[in-house]
Amino acid sequence: MGANASAYEEDDETITVMKGVRLTENVINRMRGASASANTQSPPTIPENNPFGVFLLCDVASEEGLCRTVTQEQELQKGREQHMSLTELEVHQGVEQEKVQAQMQVEERFAEENLKQSILADRAAAQDHRLRAHLYAHQLEQRIRELKKQDALYREQVAKLEWRGKRFYSAITESYQKASREVSAKFRQNQINPVCADLQREILKCYRENTGHTLSCSKIASLYLQCVTEARQSKTRPGD
């Protein structure tokens, strides 16, 4: 065949492509047989601008059956090309679908990882909150124990101060009563005005006005005792 024809094997059958038309070996042989039985005139050439050469081949074959065969071959070729196009489209769609599925799987894994990280972070925060609450509760218990100890110590100190105050009050009262008795006896013996009468009246008045709180009269009582002591000393001096 000429330079514009090529041949290859497909499914144990030799296929010849002429001007873009796929022709089987059987069709080629029939075309050759028809050409040999025709007149001795030269075969027509196939122009370059005819993409398939179907009508020219029909003119060369000059047989209606051969023309139908060529047309069928063309239709078969067209069907094969459509089938290949559909196959390629299906393959392309399958590849695109696989890409979409792969992308969805990546996004799902990413979402799952984010969810896991969020759950772990929430668990860590909850654990930290529990530990802090336990620590604060322990510190509060310690503070309460310390306050109880301080309160007990304060109460003990207050009790000691009250006891000392009572002792001091008892001593002052006893001293006053003793001094008062001594002074009264001396007054009765000498029939004179009592010594330190002003202080005596003031201290008696203070005791009456501050019943149960005689500690406030301790200053007057001290002045009274001092006055009585000085009076005694003045009487015991020679020449008095």
Helix and strand run: EEEHHHHH
User: In whole angstroms, how far apart are the ends?
Assistant: 179 Å
Strand content: 5-15%
The helix tally amounts to 5
Number of strands: 3
Q: Unreliable segments (pLDDT under 50, ≥5 consecutive)?
A: 38-62
Shape: rod-shaped
Neighbour order of strands in the largest sheet: 1-2-3
* Largest sheet report: 3 strands, antiparallel
- Tell me the radius of gyration: 69 Å
Membrane topology: Lipid-anchor
Subcellular location: Mitochondrion inner membrane
Keywords: Coiled coil, Disulfide bond, Lipoprotein, Membrane, Mitochondrion, Mitochondrion inner membrane, Myristate
Protein name: CHCH domain-containing protein
Which characteristics define this entry?
240 residues, 75% helix, MIC19/MIC25, coiled coil, disulfide bond, CHCH domain-containing protein, lipoprotein
